[in-house]
Amino acid sequence: MQDNNMYNQQQPMMEPQTMQPIALFTTNDITGQELQYLGLVQGSVVRAKDFGRSFMGGLKAGTVGGEIQIYTDLLNEARAIAIERMVAQARTYGADAIIALRIATCSVLDGCSEVTAYGTAVKYVNK
Questions:
Q1: Which one of 3.30.110.70, 3.40.630.30, 3.10.20.310, 3.40.50.720 gives the CATH number of domain 23-124?
Q2: What is the DSSP string of 98-119?
Q3: How does pLDDT run across 4-46, given as a tens digit for each residue?
């Protein structure tokens, strides 16, 4: 059976072939570009660590110190999902870019972290 999912492994997860990429900027403007401001866009995800990996990560932190790779991977994955959701919302506005991109992380429960990506969706006036 052939996989007809547009988000298969052969294509970038955030940018299916039929869609134009949305540029992401941490700055509040784009030099040399006149912009139409479309509004705030955001994406968020709450991720929980699982007990097995949490226990092993805690052992490593308590005995040898250093980076706990499973937590780093968990937050990197959550960040990518939050950005993907923000970009999806910007697409519904017809945006060409997102400016003033910010990412925030907080603990919502013991063992659960929320990652939120937010920014301002804009359209290029003079393409």
A1: 3.30.110.70
A2: EEEEEEEEEEEETTEEEEEEEE
A3: 433 333 333 444 456 789 999 999 999 999 999 999 999 999 9
What DSSP state is assigned to residue 14? Answer: S
Q: How far is CA 56 from CA 60, 62, 78, 98, in A?
A: 6, 10, 20, 38
Q: How many CB atoms lie within 10 A of CB 75?
A: 14
- What stretch of H or E contains 48? strand 35-48
pTM above 0.90, yes or no: no
Distance CA 94, CA 85 (A): 15
